[in-house]
Write a structure and sequence with these properties.
The protein is mainly alpha-helical. The chain has one domain. Helices cover about 55% and strands about 5% of the residues. It is built from 13 helices and 6 strands. A two-stranded antiparallel sheet has the order 1-2. Helix 4 packs parallel to helix 6. The longest helix has about 35 residues. The chain is globular, with a radius of gyration of 22 Å. About 40% of the residues are buried. InterPro entries: DUF2515. This is DUF2515 domain-containing protein. It holds the Pfam family DUF2515. It comes from Schinkia azotoformans MEV2011.
């Protein structure tokens, strides 16, 4: 995978990446020699406190999402914390869609549970990997000491230990943010995308629906522009491809952080709108946490040009708390994804400008979803 990217960007690495390359090449050749250090009692206490705090905030999508935002507000130089917050909001919306007003008419109950399990596992895994990194950085700031060797106690990739050491000296916010994108998507690759159960119960079963009908591949960033909510974002194609997910992460980063005015508008929305998991959070004129439909009645499309047709009910979109119970997760699988230093070519900044226009596409998807739901009900009646 890295080879394709390298051939495409056949240019010399800047000095900052050349230093990272040197360190990663050394580690990729001798991965077995990278071991956890014996910790002093004070260091053991730091690790224990970080582990407890991470577990406390890793209860569900709402607690994780809020933790990301609060951390970003404390440390705005950690750009990924806000990117992670906004993407995690989308994860919550996708989870509640499975119990909302449309998808239960398309999916079976087993399919919905399988997909929620997949979403929740990925959401949980990313948080338990990245949040200790954030807290180690925070502790390093408090003490004025580089404590990133403690990341080994949390089984964080040696790739990220190298990047954090670089950030501690150089404060390159872009390299750190994109490195975290690379790390989290690579971390998920074997643990979620390569999981045999998810392949059988999610990808093989729902692949067609996910690609052609569902809105689960839209990443939406609401923003406040002159008191009006506007949506920007990107659409992910080929979710199972690691390369595509990393490049999507880079585009999402560009949408948020290439335009200071746009960033402030998204931040304003995020800071003033608590995350509930319901899509009512951003579009209350279309979605509601209360089911306004007639119980047991046939589903009728009610959207036209992203407006509810007069006298029609809004789309039911429950809060996460109401839709799904908290899930107790098994421990994360041990293992470092990092084996090839050439992954750093993803850290090259292409200075890409991404407009982020997505509202029309998202509206069309909602209308297709409604059509799919009403069509399936009509067919089931005929059967």
């Amino acid at each position: 995978m890295w080879r394709r990217l390298i051939n495409k960007n056949n240019i010399a690495l800047p000095e900052s990446l050349a230093k990272i390359k040197k360190e990663l090449k050394k580690k990729s050749k001798e991965p077995s020699k990278i071991q956890k250090s014996l910790l002093l009692p004070e260091e053991q206490l730091i690790v224990q406190q970080i582990a407890e705090k991470t577990e406390r905030f890793n209860k569900n999508n709402v607690t994780r999402t809020q933790a990301y935002l609060e951390y970003y507000l404390r440390h705005p130089e950690i750009h990924w914390a806000f990117l992670g917050h906004m993407v995690s909001r989308n994860g919550g919306w996708n989870m509640t869609d499975l119990k909302g007003g449309i998808l239960p008419r398309i999916l079976t109950k087993n399919e919905a549970v399988s997909y929620f399990t997949f979403l929740e596992r990925g959401n949980w895994l990313i948080f338990q990997d990245v949040y200790p990194q954030f807290l180690v950085y925070e502790e390093s700031l408090k003490r004025g000491l580089n404590l990133f060797y403690l990341l080994r106690s949390f089984n964080v990739s040696t790739f990220m230990e190298t990047i954090w050491n670089h950030f501690w000296i150089n404060r390159d916010t872009y390299i750190l943010a994109i490195a975290l994108v690379i790390n989290e998507q690579s971390y998920l690759e074997k643990r979620v995308l390569g999981n045999k159960v998810f392949k059988k119960d999610v990808f093989n079963t729902l692949e067609f629906k996910l690609q052609d009908f569902l809105s689960l591949n839209h990443i939406l960033f609401p923003s406040i522009n002159k008191l009006k909510i506007e949506l920007i974002g990107q659409t992910l194609h080929n979710f199972e491809n690691l390369d595509e997910r990393i490049l999507l992460g880079k585009r999402l980063y560009a949408i948020l952080f290439r335009d200071e005015k746009r960033l402030k508008m998204v931040e304003q929305w995020a800071k003033t709108t608590p995350h509930t998991g319901s899509r009512k959070d951003y579009w209350p004129h279309i979605f509601n946490i209360v089911d306004e439909g007639v119980p047991g009645g046939l589903f009728k499309p009610r959207l036209k040009s992203c407006q509810i047709v007069k006298n029609s009910p809004r789309i039911y979109s429950p809060t996460l708390e109401f839709a799904w119970k908290n899930v107790s997760q098994e421990s994360a699988e041990i293992g470092d994804w990092f084996t090839d230093w050439e992954v750093i070519h993803y850290l090259m900044d292409s200075k890409e400008t991404v407009d982020g226009e997505i509202e029309d596409e998202y509206c069309e998807t909602l209308e297709r979803l409604e059509l799919a739901a009403s069509t399936k009900e009509a067919i089931s009646i005929l059967d």
